[in-house]
Structure prediction request, 183 residues.
Amino acid sequence: MIYLPRTQSISQSRRRFLRYLAGGASSSLIFGSIASAKSRELSLEYLCSRFPLNSRCKDYLPGVQAQDTQEKPIQVDVLLTQIKPNVPVLVQGLPNRDRAYLVITEKQQIAPYAIRPICTHLGCTVAWQSTENRFVCPCHGSQYDAQGRVVKGPARRSLPIITAIVKQNQVRLVELSPAIDPR
Ligand code: FES
Prediction:
């Protein structure tokens, strides 16, 4: 009689301890599987940004969808009927409402990179001037060609670029510069 409460107490503690262990183990499993799913997603994002033709990327859309200046998603088949060679197309859709220009090649295709319109002299925003066929910086007059290469200083470096991927009739913008600058 004397020992019964003590026995109950020990067994209750044991049960509580086992429940605690079980809870800890299942939490670890849950968090572990969330973390590994997240890291799989991240590695797929990286793989498909760098190598969009990889077989694992068939149904994966990396980055964000490019939109036109009215915030409508760009449909590649429609865009291809409207673009002209060497005339960049202003798009948005990046985080923080940042903008970029799609580069249009001589063959009227969308290049695999887009230009961020940030002057490499002191960081002013440049804009495409169709009358001059150049990006022009309003601050100190630097100019860049349709691929973002410097044609007039004081800037010395080309405009920064990010990755553009054409997939499933969309243009996906990935905030990673291509492994090799194609310019
Ligand atoms: S910031 Fe563009 S030329 Fe100076």
Remarks:
- The chain has two domains: 4-57, 64-174.
- The pocket of FE2/S2 (inorganic) cluster is lined by residues 119, 121-122, 124, 137, 139-142, 154-155 (CB under 6 Å).
- The mean pLDDT is 85.
- The first helix runs from residue 4 to 50.
